[in-house]
Amino acid sequence: QVQLVESGGGLVQAGGSLRLSCAASGRTFRNYAMGWFRQATGKEREFVGAITWSGGTPFYADSVKGRFIISRDNAKNTVYLQMNSLKPEDTAVYYCAGGPVFPSPITHEYDYWGQGTQVTVLS
């Protein structure tokens, strides 16, 4: 069993940066690929990016590619989402998720979800 807790959300001006963290409990954290998703008000949850269990070769949604960076530190049981050049359309609740063996953009392939953290980008 893995429990996930996100932090680091907040208000930021367009063009600014934020770093989200996702702290995991449970010794099996390092066995899972981890993903970040987001959900804007009135919209479906969408894939942001994902990373392998070893921390290699993240991949991203086209909407964030070149601006967002995912990393993980298995020694700290933590995965990060560095968000740069933020845009108002990045405003959403951001969730980390874990569970699949391989990184996936598909929501239902993830077994474990955090409670989410709000990111609001002001224009």
Give an overview in words.
It is a single chain. A hairpin with a 6-residue loop joins strand 4 and strand 5 (46-51). By secondary structure, this protein is mainly beta. It has no helices and eleven strands. The strands form two sheets. Strands 2, 4, 5, 6, 9, 10 and 11 form a seven-stranded mixed beta sheet that branches. The protein has a four-stranded antiparallel beta sheet with strand order 1-3-8-7, with no helix packed on it.
Q: Categorize the overall geometry.
A: globular
* Uncertain runs: none
- Secondary-structure element sequence? EEEEEEEEEEE
Number of strands: 11
Largest sheet: 7 strands, mixed
Average pLDDT score: 94
Classify the beta-strand content into a percent band.
Answer: over 45%
Find the structural class using helix and strand composition. Answer: mainly beta
Query: Roughly how much helix do the residues carry, as a percent range?
Result: under 10%
The count of helical stretches stands at 0
- The radius of gyration over CA amounts to 13 Å
What is the rounded distance between the termini? 40 Å
